[in-house]
From TrEMBL:
The keyword Transit peptide does not apply. The keyword Repeat applies. Keywords: Repeat. Belongs to the PPR family. P subfamily. Residues 591-676 form the Smr domain. SMART domains: SMR (SM00463). It comes from the Eukaryota. Residues 56-88 are annotated as: Disordered. GO terms for biological process: chloroplast organization; regulation of gene expression; regulation of primary metabolic process. This is Smr domain-containing protein. PPR repeats lie at residues 162-196, 197-231, 232-266, 267-301, 302-336, 337-371, 372-406, 408-442, 443-477.
């Protein structure tokens, strides 16, 4: 057995006209099977992470200098002889390894010219241009790399491609996210008369992106034409992300449209930025479209993308889609991190998906993940809105014992609201005391909740006392505060309503005037109540109009003044505040009550019964086959009974022929025949109220 070795085994490296840039992971057997074709196929520089091409070898130079195997005769060498091992050490495999060790020595030396020069000199072999590239390409120390570059440039005579030496040095700086010195090196290039190429700019752009400086990336991108450099598709695709992060949404989306048309390859980072852009602009359908498009292109979503999608669906109040995305995340083998859980708590908390939010909360606790004050407050606010009293107390105690979170004003506000809405006076008062001890003065929102609590407990004197405190603190009552007083009046015994009328008159005189007209036993002139109530409704915000009307009607019903209740309901219908209460089709007439308070619902039922009587018995109009009442199927968050249960009981008292539909939750139905018979018996007996 025998084999031949070139008498000049490193001739590839010593050819000054050949400048190849070899990746750090070059296999040891690379040059044992050297051919120009092999070298060309591996000539990409693996020196950048975000843009996978920065330097290309010119094939013409490779073809111009092929190794001339026939120019010298090669002696036969016994592979077992000492001579063979000596020749192996001279092979490129050994040469490449020695250059890697040189790079390691330069990384470890002190960052000064003398020490760098000493390490290079001790290498003991002439370094050619391609040796310099391999050495710099394998370096990691951003402090010594520029010094090594300068030293090698001084030692080499007339390097043919200085730009590649600068590019691999900038790459070393990029590894350490050192954009400042990368830009200084660029200026050194220009001063030395070296013209930057595409690889120079793509390396600087990717460095700026890695440093989280998208605007700088955009600046470097926009400099390319002035140096005669045309960005390719990979660079342009990367700029979608840079422009998006820099705030130039129009340019980012324009590039993305071009990318779709020209079928550029877009990475997951860029898709993540596009999702963020659409989410920030409120185009949540756009977020989902990007997600589906990236999957269709075979780009696998990463955890950052999943988290951004979850956050966007939370802002969109689409908890059901957050659930789907969460399942996708798990099924694709990702482990939720803190950001995942935080996004889910925000999504479920905002949408009041109480059970789902609590599952995520407890899963975080099991995994030892800490919640922030904002996440605790999100959970507490959710509990306040859906009536999870015990859960709120559990979360509050966990927050205090966490050692990392301190309750703030929002925390106490939510906790007091939870206790107040279910009438737990002692707990609400204790929370109010704790709030003050923590250095937080109660806001109008908190005092509104306290008044609601006393009202639920029918402690009218405490309501008046708290109202006086509001005035003493110099706080001006707002519309919600006045609405709370009005709601408390609907819960107050008739003999004590007068105390609250005085409070309402002080807080909002116009409201006080309307309330006095409702409370007075004597009837006012026709049209006066409606006129005053209309002026009141016109003076308040649209977000509280229905609540005010509901409370005014409830107050009338509680005082057994059905006539005034009907007058207020009629006003609401005329102002289109109550819309869609009645609907008619060829097969069914319906009454829709699910948006009304109990008193308003009973009043609307009374009016509808009278309308049916007028239509069927007076006008002789033919009733449809079915009549229905829709109450919805929910229950009040702080009550054990919903409107459906209360109405069912009331219909039984009236002996009305409406029965709950087994296949339609919240619907009570009857036939036209049964309804007409009941209406006739009702009129004959003289029933005029509900």
């Amino acid at each position: 057995m025998s084999f031949h070795l070139y008498s000049s085994p490193s001739s590839l490296l010593h050819d000054p006209n050949l400048l190849s840039v070899l990746p750090k992971s070059t296999p040891r057997s690379f040059l044992c099977s050297y051919s120009p074709r092999n070298l060309l196929q591996t000539s990409h520089v693996s020196v950048q992470e975000a843009i996978p091409h920065e330097t290309h070898i010119e094939k013409s130079k490779l073809d111009a200098n092929p190794p001339d195997a026939g120019s010298k005769r090669h002696p036969w060498v016994n592979p077992k002889s000492p001579r063979a091992s000596q020749l192996r050490r001279k092979s490129y495999d050994s040469r490449y390894s020695s250059l890697v060790k040189l790079a390691e020595s330069l990384d470890a030396c002190a960052p000064n010219e003398a020490d760098v020069s000493d390490v290079v000199t001790k290498f003991g072999s002439n370094l050619f241009e391609q040796d310099a590239v391999v050495t710099l390409n394998n370096m990691k120390n951003p402090e010594t790399a520029p010094l090594v570059l300068n030293n090698l440039l001084e030692k080499m005579k007339k390097p043919t491609r200085e730009v590649i030496l600068y590019n691999v040095t900038i790459k070393v700086l990029r590894k350490s996210k050192d954009l400042e010195n990368s830009e200084k090196l660029f200026q050194d290039m220009l001063q030395r008369g070296v013209k930057p190429d595409n690889a120079t700019f793509t390396t600087l752009i990717s460095c700026a992106r890695q440093c989280g400086l998208p605007k700088r990336a955009v600046e470097w991108f926009e400099k390319m034409p002035s140096f005669g450099c045309d960005p390719d598709n990979v660079t342009l695709a990367a700029m979608i992300d840079a422009y998006g992060r820099a705030g130039n949404v129009e340019m980012a989306l324009s590039l993305y449209d071009r990318a779709r048309t020209e079928k550029w390859r877009i990475d997951a980072v860029t898709f993540s930025t596009l999702i963020r852009i659409y989410g920030f602009s409120g185009n949540y359908d756009g977020c989902l479209n990007i997600y589906e498009e990236m999957k269709s292109l075979g780009v696998k979503p990463n955890l950052v993308i999943y988290n951004r999608l979850l956050d966007s669906m939370g802002k969109a109040k689409r908890p059901w889609q957050a659930k789907i995305i969460h399942k996708d995340l798990i099924s694709n083998g990702f482990e939720p991190n803190w950001s995942t859980y935080a996004a889910l708590i925000r999504a479920y908390g905002r949408a009041r998906y109480g059970d789902d939010a609590l599952v995520i909360y407890r899963e975080m606790k099991e995994k030892g993940l800490e919640l922030t004050v904002i996440l605790y407050n999100t959970l507490l606010s959710m509990c306040a809105d859906i009536g999870y009293v015990d859960e709120a107390f559990e979360i509050f105690q966990d927050m205090k014992s966490s050692g990392t979170c301190v309750p703030d004003s929002w925390t106490f506000s939510s906790l007091i609201t939870v206790y107040s809405c279910c009438g737990r006076v002692s707990e609400a008062e204790a929370a109010l005391v704790e709030m003050r001890e923590a250095g937080f003065e109660p806001t109008l929102f908190v005092l509104t909740s306290v008044i609601q609590c006393y009202g639920k407990a029918k402690q009218v004197d405490d309501v008046v006392r708290t109202f006086d405190q509001v005035l003493e603190l110099g706080i001006a009552p707002d519309e919600r505060f006045c609405g709370c007083l009005l709601n408390v009046m609907t819960l107050t015994p008739r003999e004590e309503i007068g105390k609250l009328v005085e409070c309402v008159e002080k807080a909002k005189p116009k409201l006080g005037q309307v309330v006095k007209m409702l409370v007075q036993d004597e009837n006012c002139e026709e049209g006066v109540l409606k006129k005053e109530a209309s002026e009141l409704i016109d003076s308040i915000g649209s977000d509280v109009k229905k609540a005010y009307l509901n409370c005014l009607i409830d107050l009338c019903v509680n005082l057994n003044n059905l006539e005034k209740a009907c007058e207020i309901l009629q006003l609401g219908l005329e102002l289109d505040i109550y819309s869609g209460l009645q609907s008619k089709s060829a097969t069914q007439w319906s009454l829709h009550l699910k948006s009304l308070s109990l008193g308003a619902a009973l009043t609307a039922l009374h009016v509808w019964m009278n309308d049916l009587t007028e239509a069927a018995l007076t006008s002789g109009e033919e009733l449809p086959p079915l009549l229905g009442i829709n109450t919805g199927h929910g229950k009040h968050k702080y009550s054990d009974k919903g409107l459906a249960a209360v109405l069912e009981s009331h219909l039984k008292e009236l002996n009305a022929p409406f029965h709950e539909a087994p296949d339609k939750v919240g619907w009570f139905l009857t036939t036209s025949v049964a309804a007409k018979a009941w209406l006739e018996s009702r009129r004959s007996s003289g029933e005029v109220s509900v």
